[in-house]
Model the fold of this input.
Amino acid sequence: MVNYKYMVNKNIEQKTALKIRSIPLITVSVLAIAIYAIAILPRFFLPVPESVPLVIFNLSEVHTDVFDHPFGHPEIPSCNTGDIVFYSSNVDLGRLKADKESCESPYIDGLIYSGRNTPLKVLIENGDIFLDQHLTIHTENGNDYTLCLPKLTNGQIVYFDNEGTPYTDIKLTQRIINESCKTQLSGGMVINVYDAGKSAVYPNGFDYHALVRGSFNYPDIWEFGYLFGDDRGFDREAMCGDCYSRAYGNAPLAIAPHPTGSASFPLIVPADIVTVWNVTEEVKNICLPLTFLPGNPGDSEVYYLSEDGTAYEDAFLTIKAMAEDCELILGRGAIPKQVISANTTILPDQAAIAFTRGDIYDPRLLGWLRWDEGWIEGDLPLSSVVLKGGAPLVIALQNLNSEEVELSWPQQELTIITDIGEYRVCIPEQVISAVKPLLFYLGNDGLLYQDVFLQEKIIC
Done:
């Protein structure tokens, strides 16, 4: 006889057990859907954040770092022929007024804007903008901004976000440079130079390197000083004197080699590693490539510098002026902070070997080996700022004759004991002028080189 009561009860138990077993599955499914909704769906349904507009109500200063001719073409003026006019909504905040004769762009103040928040607008009037450049602006409420302004033609309008990036539309959706201005500026060398030294001997006809950042605008050009090619070294008072404390913004450092008024052209300016530092002793290295100045007296070139010291031909750091990055070049050099002693097989009368780094005209040395007194310990302190840089050890052969008598230097072996190791190098037979020393550079491979970039080995 079939027990229907038992079967009914058994069926109820099975259904109840099935529901209980299903609870974890349902819970897992609900959790999975929740995770998907939180992590995945927002990608499809939340709007992409828009760029934040740069809102300016009152401008007080505007500067540009454009040079007056494109690199390698001193005969072609590249100064702004168009006025750069700044607007908030339709209110004229001010302008850089182009002077086609002097190639200057003085700032002319405008009105104060008090309307709703709209992105800063720039209109090009009465001419063109021939070169990419940075605009460094200062507002009445004390804020500073650096804008990336590309080449533009008469009548073009661009709008800026709060990172200085230009757009063609007021909604800031159509960017007109390859990367954001903030990203581009992060690759530049931003330092207000207080002092500088060089590692190369310069020819007759070379005058100085001008060090500038942020403003080529006369009369307020932010020129930190002149690094002369001779023993005058760095002159901070050559231009504004206090620019190291006044320059602001994030435009990259620029360096411009200048010939003298009596130079013969083309003038070949040697490659060099320039060491610069600011008032707080932050040190940067600059690699300057071999440069030909093809123009006339007064003509010069300008290099813009990346964070690692590599030279570029343009302010946006897109056209490299040298085959290698500065970082690779610096990595080849021996950079001791102390020369403990040195000796050689023979030194002719009136001959000396000076050891230095970072500034060949600093009267303090890492050491001096003379024909009459032998080794003289250096007086350049280990804490010297210039030793924080990456310029290689310089071995300078000196002719100490009081008259302009050439010195025949025989081939010899030189032993140098430093805080980072001992080096034995060969110096080939030379003729040394009484006017300028002959420089060699020590590589971390233990070899001597003729050039500061450590590419031309000395062969005995």
Remarks:
- The CA atoms of residues 90 and 229 lie 50 Å apart.
- The longest strand covers residues 206-213.
- The chain has five helices and 31 strands.
- The mean pLDDT is 87.
